[in-house]
């Protein structure tokens, strides 16, 4: 028979004497040393004594406590631990709530959050382009869908209309969708495999031949390395700032945007070093470019504009030389079939055919670090001095008039 009544419970609470008062069949009113009052249920499971809290008093009254104790008692008599059962039910309720919340997060919302989380390491142009592709092709189809509901059929509805005509864009878009859905899984907003993955999945549903052709089209038209010295002669005879930028572009193997936004503070002409901060690099890692003597001399002769930090200042919003200045100069010299970026390939082909420098040195000269993370952790050198020798040889070759160049001669190194 139950031993407690509501009046007895109230009197015990007012008295505030610490301890346990039993109601019978394992139910107790507990008063702590600090005056807190609550209900507990004591039971045994597999021969081990356990205590289960049933709620605070007076939020949980006597009748509710007896009901909870009765439920727990039935479980324990059936060999089920009430604590384990309660934890399982709480986990189930949390999962139900998680699914409800996941349904409220659409692909578009998560894509924008992904952009905001990772975009600080991207250039402004890349940020805009990344979002623009989604706005044009993905958001109209899957933007309002919950990330948990997106399946292969939805991804195909985005990609198939442009796979044959805009394969490169479609493949980049597929990668973006894959990234966003991976982020959704990391946040436990979806389960299962990523429906936008290529290997072993979409490669079986979309033309691999189209993708291969699109990748091939990414190569920039490049000048044959044998023709570089002749171009350098013509550039040296051209008295415009863009010609200096073009010569610097060729002699350093740098990317076009690195040249356009180059600042005088980055150069130590005496030490022959160009130090680029991480925010100016594609991979967001600081990088040093050794300067050949010809480059140091070229920059030393370049006039500086007082109060302007840039080597190649301009009148536009960017404050630097127009993005097409070098291209327009090359076109005016009747070089219509080459690109600025292609000079990096010219340098790489020359290094491969005319020198014996190790592959990793040649790749590092282009800021391509092909070492894996483990190797890079133990080999932290960027081989500046070895690259200095390579770039000096390249500058010697590129600035020597064509009739004096000996192609397979002085530049061979063991």
Descriptive overview:
It is a single chain. The chain has 414 residues and is of the alpha+beta class. It has three domains: 6-90, Integrase, DNA-binding domain (Double Stranded RNA Binding Domain, 2-Layer Sandwich), CATH 3.30.160.390; 107-216, DNA polymerase, domain 1 (Orthogonal Bundle); 225-404, hpI Integrase, Chain A (Orthogonal Bundle). Helices cover 49% and strands 9% of the residues. The protein has 17 helices and seven strands. The chain has helices at residues 6-15, 62-77, 82-104, 107-118, 124-142, 152-163, 167-186, 208-216, 228-236, 241-252, 256-260, 293-300, 325-332, 342-354, 359-365, 373-378, 384-398; strands at 19-24, 27-31, 37-45, 48-56, 267-268, 273-276, 287-290. The strands form two sheets. A four-stranded antiparallel sheet has the order 1-2-3-4, with helices on one face. It has a three-stranded antiparallel sheet with strand order 5-6-7. A hairpin with a 2-residue loop joins strand 1 and strand 2 (27-31). The radius of gyration is 35 Å and the shape is elongated.
Q: How many β-strand stretches? A: 7
Q: Give the strand content.
A: 5-15%
- Roughly what percent helix? 40-55%
Label the CATH architecture of the largest domain: Orthogonal Bundle
What is the CATH topology classification name of the largest domain? hpI Integrase, Chain A
Under CATH at level 1, the class of the largest domain stands as: Mainly Alpha
Biggest sheet strand order reads 1-2-3-4
User: How would a textbook summarize the main sheet?
Assistant: 4 strands, antiparallel
One letter per element, helices H and strands E, the order comes to HEEEEHHHHHHHHHHEEEHHHHHH
Continuous helix count: 17
